[in-house]
Amino acid sequence: MDPTNHLYAACASNELPTDAACLRAFFFDRCTDWQSLLGLYKGIPIIERQTFKDHRESIRRAAAAGGVEVLRCIARIYEGPTTTSSGYWRWFQAHRRQLEALATPSQCPSAGSVVRLDGLGAALELNGAIGRVTGPAEEDGRLPVRLRSPAEAVASRPAGLAPEASSCSPPGHNESMAVLLLIDTVSGFAPAKVQLQGLGPVLVARTDGRDFTAGEMWQLHDYNHHLMDCWPEFTDARRRRALTPDAFRAFTRSRAS
Q1: Quick one: pLDDT at residue 147?
Q2: Residue 242: pLDDT above 70?
Q3: Which residue in 121, 133, 158, 256 has its CB near the most CB atoms, within 10 A?
Q4: What is the pTM of this model?
Q5: How far apart are the C-alpha atoms of 190 and 28, rounded to whole Å?
């Protein structure tokens, strides 16, 4: 199937597409609020049934053109008196500018460039750290950087900084780890701006200044996924216990055994 057929199949099953070309063509690899994005696309078959018009070919042409053409195509389909009350349409209108920004690939600094970390909210002491890019960006978008200070730490995707000669993400893995670290424990979501715009080059480090390895980053990432799977079933007391170092250590020990 082509990406458009994969999209329609995902809408029918109410599941995130698994086809890589579909993920790229329809922004699922960049917009972490994929539930709202999928909800937007799910409205298209409904509109088609209401208007007796098949939009599959126009979506296919827009996907082939890429970038903002997909967003323009979706807007043309939705614009009409029967869709103005759609919550996902209002979500699209509110976030269209951010989605258009996602359609423009960011330029990674070239090898030898000096970079400065900025805009970190979770580890303010790392803002201002300076490093030098030691090589070209890898296929998954990560950059090898040698930091002058502080000590090396594990970086996040997309286009994140990583310890030199270290691999933090398996091939084909497109999820931003650092976004999960910013999830609010009450709402269950990272800030909307972060979900739509990403974090850009960021550095993830321990606040106590101790070494933080790629393996430890993956342990924390796995634990975040575990919490997201179990969170709806947890009581308030169990949620509080889950957000403790002891609970994390117990999880890592169970995975190691």
Answers
A1: 64
A2: yes
A3: 158
A4: 0.45
A5: 16
What average pLDDT does the segment 38-57 reach? Answer: 90
Give the pair of three-digit tokens for residue 234.
Answer: 């947890």
What pLDDT was estimated at residue 60?
94
Q: What is the dihedral of CA 173, 99, 220, 171, to 10 degrees?
A: 10
The 8 Å CB, 24+ separation contacts for 89-96 are 89/40, 89/43, 91/36, 91/39, 91/40, 92/40, 95/192, 95/196, 96/71
Q: Which three-class secondary structure state does DSSP give residue 82?
A: coil
Nearest to 183 by CA among 172, 175, 191: 191
Q: In whole angstroms, give the CA distance from residue 3 to residue 23.
A: 8
Q: Are 102 and 27 in contact (CB under 8 A)?
A: yes
For the segment 216-239, the average pLDDT, to the nearest whole number, is 84
- Taking the CA atoms of the chain, what radius of gyration do you get in angstroms? 20
- The DSSP string of 111-137 is TT-EEE----SS-GGGTT-EEEE-SPP
Q: Tell me, rounded to whole angstroms, the distance of Cα 2 from its chain centroid.
A: 23
Structure-token pair, residue 58: 């126009």
pLDDT in tens, 110-168: 777 776 655 444 445 555 666 677 877 665 556 676 665 433 333 333 333 333 323 33
Single-letter code of the amino acid located at 84: T
Average pLDDT of every residue of the chain:
74
